[in-house]
Design a protein that fits this description.
Distance between the termini: 14 Å
CATH topology: Rossmann fold
Bound molecules: 1,3,4-trihydroxy-5-OXO-cyclohexanecarboxylic acid
CATH architecture: 3-Layer(aba) Sandwich
Order of helices and strands: EHHEHEHEEH
Mean pLDDT: 97
CATH superfamily: Dehydroquinase, class II
């Protein structure tokens, strides 16, 4: 069976209570549960990780290259700052789909720049928790094509 990593960056452990007007009311566990349910219809096995630490996110990406067929990645605040995460995504040979709950293109200017998007296969943003759902489907299609 094909396998994918769902990787969540900093502060996403606080989903549900963190700025719910922007990020919605679902907790991270609830989002993960919905993705797990969806993946069972898709014949795709998921693993989930969240970290508030840049280096740990880099380690998860490096490790994923040895077992996963692809990654759905919300780099959260690091999206806009992290050359090191960009380099990690570029270094691994599996497809990575960047995802954001909010529509980062319509927010503050500093959020409109992603250092990571150019090395991803694509970006899904602005659909709340469903951004993850659509990103999962996009990733599953990419994996199926290979
Ligand atoms: C986010 C958008 C980022 O700008 C922000 O720092 C986050 C969440 C999103 O999912 O909308 O933490 O990645």
């Amino acid at each position: 069976m094909k396998q994918a990593l769902i990787l969540h960056g900093p502060n996403l452990n606080l989903l549900g209570v963190r700025e719910p007007d922007i990020y919605g009311t679902l907790s991270l566990a609830e989002i993960n549960a919905r993705l797990l349910e969806e993946s069972q219809k898709m014949d795709l096995q998921l693993r989930f990780h969240q970290s508030n630490h840049e280096g740990e996110l880099i380690d998860f990406l490096h490790e994923a290259a040895s077992w996963a067929n692809g990654v759905v990645f919300n780099p959260a605040g690091y999206t806009h700052t992290s050359v090191a995460l960009r380099d990690a995504v570029a270094a691994i040979r599996i497809p990575v789909v960047e995802v954001h709950l909010s529509n980062v293109s319509g927010r503050e200017p500093f959020r409109q720049v992603s250092l990571i998007a150019p090395v991803c296969r694509g970006v899904v943003a602005g659909f709340g928790w469903r951004s993850y759902l659509y990103a999962l489907h996009a990733l599953a299609d990419l994996i199926a094509e290979n």
